[in-house]
Design goal:
The protein is α/β, with parallel strands linked by helices. Strand 1 and strand 2 form a beta hairpin. It starts with 6 loop residues before the first strand and ends with a strand.
Length: 420
């Protein structure tokens, strides 16, 4: 029950409400910690006259709705209405964070794009910080990107980070306006499509401070086109799957590359220091060019059976991470032996083992034989490798040297633990 006297009713009597006497900035800090986010904060307006407008000035807005069981259509519509109402009632001139994560609606499409556009306009006008928009996209929606609705991204000159998750729509970026997104440092897009030329112009001209770009399960409207990324400021690039013909990157300050794709790629990055080529598609030097980068890396993360050629491209590494998961069959084990003939010279070696079809001992000894000079070795063994019994025969060509290799490795620190 609310009051107008700054008190709360307890057991039929009025008690002093010391909480309401706190200054606004402390009340804002309390409201930001409510588990229900902005929705719970807005409910405090009924407590008393003192609380009526406190929530409307909080510097961060967060609307989080869990997936849970399939929500009713009216429940999802109410969630959209709550966002609309809260943004309309909020009066702070500047917001430092806006997070809108809507409930997933199995067998139904997410909120119409025209419901989302006003939320982006709010961010354009008042947000000076992080933007997260998660529109529930599910596998039952249309997979033809040419039939997806278009969502225009307005100019946001004070937004520092944008994360678009599971959009299931076509993003339209504004025409190249130099510095239009002058504060943007991180752009993260998942499950969306866009025009390749628009994205190239947006990154190269509209984002003069962009440092991190993440593209996951995205596609170009023309699937045969080139995904071109040109940036003088970009330092981290992550690309996972997608629909495009090939990838071309020119980023003189790029330091970290995470690659999980099957496409041809040409990456020009003179300052490259970390490469994560940890995917099932592999590395093919005839299709994947890493130009201008030197032979030394700070960190290299690979799967030897798919990307062993990278250890020839980068002959010395501060930290080498080998994810070893050898498929079933003698032929596959032979491939593993061939691909580990040469291992990058490294100070630290981290081996992550999934041993499901082959014996653990000869696999590990093979790696140890090839890492002379390594100062520190860490071995992470999958719990499946320990629990499963293997009946697949492995080649034992290293068996005769087991004792010698183990004696030589005693000066190295091997830290073993179960790893899931």
């Amino acid at each position: 029950m609310g009051t107008d006297q700054g008190g709360v009713v307890v057991g039929g009597g009025l008690e002093l409400d010391r909480l309401s006497d706190l200054p606004d900035h402390l009340l804002h800090s309390i409201l930001l910690r409510l588990p229900g986010g902005t929705t719970d904060a807005a409910r405090t307006s009924v407590l008393s006259r003192r609380w009526r407008h406190v929530w409307a000035h909080i510097p961060e807005l967060s609307f989080r709705y869990g997936a849970g069981a399939a929500p009713a259509a009216d429940s999802c519509a109410r969630a959209h209405d709550r966002v609309d109402s809260a943004l309309a009632a909020h009066t702070a001139p500047t917001v430092t964070r806006l997070k809108i994560s809507l409930p997933r609606e199995p067998w139904r499409a997410g909120p119409p794009v025209d419901r989302v556009e006003p939320w982006l306009r709010f961010a354009s006008q008042r947000l000076a910080g992080e933007l997260l928009l998660s529109r529930p996209y599910n596998s039952h929606e249309n997979h033809d990107v040419h039939k997806w609705h278009e969502l225009a991204v307005p100019l946001c000159d004070r937004v520092t980070e944008i994360r678009f998750n599971n959009l299931g729509c076509t993003l339209r970026f504004p025409l190249p306006t130099t510095g239009a997104f002058s504060a943007l440092a991180t752009l993260n897009i998942k499950h969306a499509s866009f025009d390749g030329d628009e994205l190239e112009a947006f990154v190269s001209s509209g984002c003069p401070r962009l440092k991190k770009l993440v593209l996951r399960h995205v596609g170009l409207l023309d699937k045969a086109a080139v995904l071109s990324i040109c940036s003088d400021t970009l330092e981290q690039l992550q690309i996972k799957d997608g629909s495009f013909g090939r990838i071309r990157v020119a980023a003189p300050k790029l330091q970290m590359l995470f690659a999980y794709f099957r496409f041809d790629a040409h990456v020009t990055a003179a300052k490259l220091s970390e490469v994560y080529w940890n995917n099932k598609f592999g590395y093919d030097p005839s299709r994947h060019y890493l130009a201008e980068a030197g032979p030394h890396l700070h960190q290299l993360v690979i799967t030897p059976n798919n990307a062993a050629a990278l250890m020839q491209r980068f002959s010395t590494v501060d930290e080498l991470v080998l994810r070893v998961d050898i498929p079933e069959g003698v032929h596959e084990y032979d491939r593993f032996l061939e691909n580990t003939n040469t291992i990058s010279k490294c100070d630290v070696l981290v081996v992550r083992l999934w041993i499901r079809h082959h014996a653990l001992k000869p696999t590990m000894l093979r790696i140890l034989q090839k890492c002379a000079g390594t100062r520190k070795i860490m071995v992470n063994i999958s719990s499946h490798s320990i629990m499963e019994e293997t009946t697949q025969a492995c080649r034992q060509d290293a068996h005769a040297n087991d004792r010698r290799v183990l004696r030589q490795s005693t000066s190295q620190w091997i830290h073993s633990k179960k790893w899931k």
